Q: What sequence folds into this?
């Protein structure tokens, strides 16, 4: 009787296959005793598997193409764009390869480093383009090894443009993308997912459309996993191409490349490069409005939306690939109108995950870096293991030094002049520092009329969650409790809660109230007296720049301050207050006073000396209220402290 | 300013020192990434450290001495006594060494195996006595190695009685306890805590009281950690002895041995063996009532209480060691009257922990063995690691076979005749089985007037916690949902709750509702239909004896069903529903039908065939309601199932 409805143990495991991957899957098996419960298949699947799963679920997706920036400043901006556009939920992004721009180098603007940043720091599934013509086998292998080392898992294998007109085939060289595909498969087995380019109108250099289809089939049969097409202007172009591909036996996913027209000049340039012809009906619309950027963009959006709708409605298309030209507005608008931009993406964990394969088991971080996740990732990049929340043993890996505060993806997005306006051209005392903190919390303009939108410890405006604590935070900052991190207590909110929720639906999330601040030794002395009354209920760590450390943490164990309970899972506890890593964080938190703030001012200037004084004399304090079901007592602790001082 | 109140990181760690232990502490360090947070110092300290900590805290304690039983049945009873008297919170128990009884053998009545059981199965800190005279060095080393292998950590080093009158010192042999102490320290370094015997009146064979004190000092200086004294009848005897010890430089703890007089004959025998003289004032009381056991015991209790009070009041005594003679009543009474019997011992975890050193990091078990913890310990005794709740990977250690259902400490405490009275001399159908289950739940007598106080899956009466579910359980058992395990949902009760609390105080405990039962395939078919409505909310595993397994557990991950949140700690999740170990449990749960129930009846008898039918055809089902903050829906699931069937 039961056999009809029966699904056996092995069959009920939905993500059991790792596609025979050789290296990535091994490590997670070794670690499985201590590893995270599989909370989010997205973190464990290869790109090809994600595509398949989305397709099986009838879940439409999109992806975004970017090119590497020219300057370090542009790189900082591009990374912010990754974060913002990443929030919309692309299945992947890809980064083009510019042979002229030293694409495999360690320069902050290289294709390799931009892709690395997208994967590791922005947590985005990323495809790195790579071209092969005019390159030696060793060069290419070197690039691929480096990509693998950096955690990149996907390569778009391209021929690239021959240098100059007199290009000739090299014997034993890489003459076509198919050579690169074969090389990747022979040298790296199944490690990389490989994407190749398709030309809906045929490659401009191909003998014929049919010959080009045959070349595409060769690339697929050499080991490519899916195809992204060159841009096209009419949906029927793509649909015909897709049918033709299928007719000759190409069965892998084929993703249409969408180019929303964003301006007259960019269109002309692209057409020139791609040797495509713009259809007359489009020219007819564009030519009369060619000097009206806004009108052209509106038209481009309309056109893209209607083309995408037609593609999706055909039932043959499951994902759309967007040529963004590194711009945000048009693509975002198209995606929103199509309804595939995720307005409220579910967070798998309460912090931004990294997409490096070795981090897919990472399920816990110290709370200290909550506003500086990129710094945390940077400082733990050499770790082999991502421990389950216990750093207390002697063999735990060390935190890397944050030597270069100007590391480009940690650099403030605001230039010096702007920072001075926010944080004060001239400080007159510790009180003017209190004021900066207070303005950051309240969102009110400072005395010179500027809003404080970032702080050295937080490059972004206040988190939504922190807003829940705004009134209390304002009060204490005014009086010299300079808060840099906090969270409210949460006693079992649904995991789908728009503000504090995370993890799979059907669960409940919890938090212990947390407060972290700099403050004077005078206040610390009073605070310690007050804390005696709260023994057991409140755990504290109090440290100064020299490392003098006062704590009541039992046995130096981490204190879990964020956890979630989910259907059919073990408990997840992704955020802890960890006594050992707090000492690493302390170095960073104190150094930010000097590196980001004091150094805005002339040496020996009074402003600089004020910040230096705070750096040398203040304490960094963190407090946890363990009684999460009761009203947060930390405000009372602070209130009692002020009372004692008066 | 802060330096005054400052206690640094290292100084705030309360249990940092492991006393230089060589082997025990190593393994926990290696495991510390995955190991349990230190919830309970008791599990991690050596006996000598526990003594010191109790003394420092001004916390009075007691310990209990037992001798090995003569028969297997007596062993079963003694182990029940360990469990009962263990509940009162002794600091340790000790098991005497009977050279005539093959004390180091694997016999279920040997000193070695009784001590092993106390440590591993009853979770008691245990001292194994060992005598050395008339034994070879190799024999003794062998015993010690075996003790270490079994997880014993403490040895009481004794000379033992010479065999016969014509005993002579052996050159290079073990002539005195001090030789054994030296041998243990030289062969096992600091692995064992060593206890030696002290004689408040001097050893009967010593030249003098003073000479005996010198011998004692030799034993201590050879490496003994503490002293337990021979019994004595007057408190001043002990207090003088203790002062004399201190005067000659013995500084280790000296624990008075207390002998509550329990009967005329046992007193006489003990006096004969120990060559002690009973004081006249005691003889004067006892002789007239020598045939009145109750009167003598009452007097013995009075005497012991007043002596113990005097000892404790002296301020020199922190712990009391009781010679129980394997009896419960008198000692328990004395302890209760002294107020050092723990009426409500705190549970470090919701299940009974084992005291084997390799299990001190054990912090999670499958819920299935909740009523059979000794079976779980037995079946995992070969494990090297006690995993953090994840058995799902291929390299997880296998569960040992439970080949011998008559393994003495898993044997039912009730004899066959009694079981037949409880479970039915003659079964007339499945309904008579339903009735047995129902009577077990309700506590009402069965149709023949007998209460059902145990079941094959549960050797004890219903747990207090299960009582919370009594009404519902009764209803479903009547209708053929034969429950063998269950727990209510708990949404954050204090960890000090007398019924469901566990772990350190100041925390909160949680549970998901759980229900496990055998039931017919007819009911399973309906149940599966009903469960579709509860998808996500309810996780289930349904399996028959052949291993046909139906589940909706995601990715075969364990589901945490009991967890606790504590001040300054990581989350503890000591109980899980684990899909992999469920299949091992299934074998045991089905086999118990046959081994414990069916085999009570003649082969081919109708009663036996009924049980055999159930074994062959019923399913074992477990259900978890993931929505722990809401009202338990499992009763509704069952209700819906019955409704569907009607």
A:
């Amino acid at each position: 009787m039961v056999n009809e409805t029966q699904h056996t143990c092995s069959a009920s495991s939905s993500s059991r296959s790792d596609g025979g991957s050789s290296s990535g899957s091994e490590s997670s098996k070794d670690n499985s005793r201590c590893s995270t419960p599989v909370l989010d298949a997205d973190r464990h699947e290869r790109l090809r598997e994600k595509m398949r799963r989305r397709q099986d679920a009838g879940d439409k997706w999109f992806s975004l193409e970017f090119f590497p920036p020219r300057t370090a400043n542009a790189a900082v901006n591009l990374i912010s764009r990754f974060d913002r556009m990443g929030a919309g939920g692309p299945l992947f992004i890809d980064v083009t390869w510019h042979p002229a721009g030293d694409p495999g180098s360690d320069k902050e603007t290289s294709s390799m480093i931009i892709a690395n940043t997208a994967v590791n720091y922005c947590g985005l599934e990323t495809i790195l383009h790579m071209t092969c013509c005019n390159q030696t086998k060793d060069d290419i292998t070197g690039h691929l090894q480096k990509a693998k080392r950096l955690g990149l898992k996907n390569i778009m294998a391209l021929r690239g443009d021959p240098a100059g007109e007199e290009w000739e085939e090299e014997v034993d060289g890489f003459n076509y993308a198919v050579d690169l595909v074969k090389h990747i498969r022979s040298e790296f087995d199944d490690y990389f997912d490989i994407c190749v380019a398709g030309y809906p109108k045929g490659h401009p250099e191909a003998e014929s459309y049919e010959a080009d289809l045959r070349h595409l089939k060769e690339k697929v049969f050499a080991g490519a996993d899916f195809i992204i097409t060159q841009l096209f202007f009419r949906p029927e172009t793509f649909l015909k191409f897709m049918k033709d591909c299928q007719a000759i036996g190409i069965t892998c996913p084929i993703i249409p490349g969408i180019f929303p027209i964003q301006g007259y000049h960019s269109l002309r340039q692209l057409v020139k490069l791609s040797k495509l012809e713009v259809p007359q009906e489009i020219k007819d619309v564009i030519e009369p409005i060619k000097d009206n950027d806004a009108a052209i963009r509106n038209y481009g959006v309309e056109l893209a939306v209607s083309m995408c709708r037609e593609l999706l409605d055909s039932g043959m298309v499951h994902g759309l690939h967007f040529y963004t030209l590194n711009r945000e507005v048009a693509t975002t608008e198209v995606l929103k109108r199509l309804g595939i931009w995720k307005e409220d993406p579910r967070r798998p964990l309460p912090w931004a995950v990294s997409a490096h394969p070795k981090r897919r088991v990472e399920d816990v971080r110290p709370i200290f870096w909550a506003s500086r996740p990129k710094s945390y990732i940077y400082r733990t990049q050499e770790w082999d293991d991502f421990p389950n929340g216990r750093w207390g043993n002697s063999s735990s890996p060390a935190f890397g030094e944050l030597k270069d505060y100007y590391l480009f993806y940690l650099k403030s997005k605001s230039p010096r002049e702007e920072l001075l306006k926010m944080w004060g051209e001239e400080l007159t005392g510790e009180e003017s520092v209190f004021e900066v903190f207070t303005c950051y919390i309240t969102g009110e303009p400072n005395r010179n009329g500027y809003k404080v939108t970032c702080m050295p410890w937080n490059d972004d405006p206040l988190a939504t969650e922190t807003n829940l604590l705004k009134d209390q935070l304002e009060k204490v900052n005014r009086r010299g409790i300079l808060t840099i991190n906090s969270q409210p207590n949460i006693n079992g909110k649904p995991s789908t809660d728009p503000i504090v929720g995370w993890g799979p639906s059907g669960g409940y999330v919890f938090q212990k109230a947390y407060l972290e601040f700099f403050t004077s030794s005078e206040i610390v002395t009073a605070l310690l007296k007050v804390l005696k009354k709260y023994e057991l209920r409140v755990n504290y760590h109090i440290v100064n720049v020299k490392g003098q450390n006062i704590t009541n943490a039992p046995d130096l164990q981490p204190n879990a301050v964020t956890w979630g309970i989910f259907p059919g899972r073990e408990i997840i506890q992704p955020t802890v207050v960890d006594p050992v890593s707090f000492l690493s964080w302390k170095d960073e938190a104190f150094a930010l006073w000097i590196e980001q703030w004091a150094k805005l001012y002339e040496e020996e200037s009074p402003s600089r000396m004020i910040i230096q004084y705070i750096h040398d004399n203040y304490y960094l304090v963190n407090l946890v209220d363990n009684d999460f079901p009761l009203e947060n007592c930390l405000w009372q602790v602070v209130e009692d402290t002020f009372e004692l001082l008066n």
